[in-house]
Design brief:
Number of helices: 4
Strand content: 25-35%
Structural class: mainly beta
Bound molecules: calcium ion
Largest sheet: 5 strands, antiparallel
Number of strands: 14
Helix content: 10-25%
Mean pLDDT: 83
Distance between the termini: 29 Å
Order of helices and strands: EHHEEEEEEEEEHEEEEH
Length: 240
């Protein structure tokens, strides 16, 4: 289940804190559904920084990356860090086979079973792996704490990114279908949600191979795990 690790990630958080912070977008044109929940957070250097005690739901919306055109699907793993704790929610993130998310699965959703204290923040570290002489070897590792250009952050009301997918892969827009308002061309999520798009193949974000859907993750904040569960139940009822 939610294996807890203590890792080296404190260094990431400390380094990231040096740069400026960005206030959360105002609700603006949020949909009625988005307005139903308000839980403060801000994106500080691509980190989610909640403004009160919080719980989190992590949704892996999709993944698509191959070893070059027509090549094999390369493994992608995800580690979630909250404060000084690290959580492998979807298999062992240090094991390319056990923790692989690039498997054409439907979206995976997991509510973390803890309430975290105000002041801690959420970082995501995504890793791509390639086959090497001694098995799977780390290719690229991208952390939201590093303020890397290989991560894009989407919040409610942001413009839908227009990035063609590499080699006929599922595009960001296709992955995010239910979280987009195509009529307005904007992201349609709640104000306490944030979407991360990872590029895990290219270190040049302007490369044609940089399609920013190598891993697509949605974070939803709430007051407690129970509140997030209740919200899921309400959403299910709403869309029956
Ligand atoms: Ca891709």
């Amino acid at each position: 289940m939610n294996n807890r690790f203590t890792t080296k990630t404190l260094a990431f958080a400390a380094a990231a804190g040096l740069a400026g912070s960005f206030a959360a977008a105002s609700p603006g044109t949020a949909s009625a559904n988005a307005d139903a929940y308000s839980f403060g957070y801000e994106i500080n250097n691509r980190r989610v920084v909640p403004s009160s005690d919080f719980a989190a739901k992590v949704s892996v919306i999709g993944a698509a990356i191959t070893y070059g055109q027509g090549g094999y699907d390369i493994p992608v793993t995800l580690r979630v860090e909250v404060g000084s704790g690290a959580y492998d929610l979807f298999g062992n993130a240090s094991d390319a086979s056990d923790g692989n998310l690039n498997d054409h699965s439907d979206a995976r959703h997991l509510i973390m079973d803890e309430t975290f204290v105000n002041g801690e923040d959420i970082n995501l570290t995504a890793t791509s792996w390639v086959s090497g002489n001694s098995g799977w070897e780390r290719h690229l590792e991208v952390s939201t704490a590093d303020n890397s250009a290989q991560v894009k952050v989407l919040r409610n009301g942001d413009a839908i990114p227009d990035i063609p997918a590499f080699d006929g892969q599922t595009s960001t827009e296709e992955f995010l279908g239910e979280y987009l308002d195509t009529a307005t061309g904007t992201v349609d999520i709640a104000d306490d949600q944030v979407i991360y798009l990872f590029e895990l193949g290219n270190t040049d974000p302007s490369s044609s191979g940089a399609d920013f859907q190598d891993l697509v993750v949605l974070i939803t904040l709430g007051d407690s795990p129970e509140a997030l569960e209740a919200r899921d139940a309400a959403d299910l009822a709403l869309y029956d």
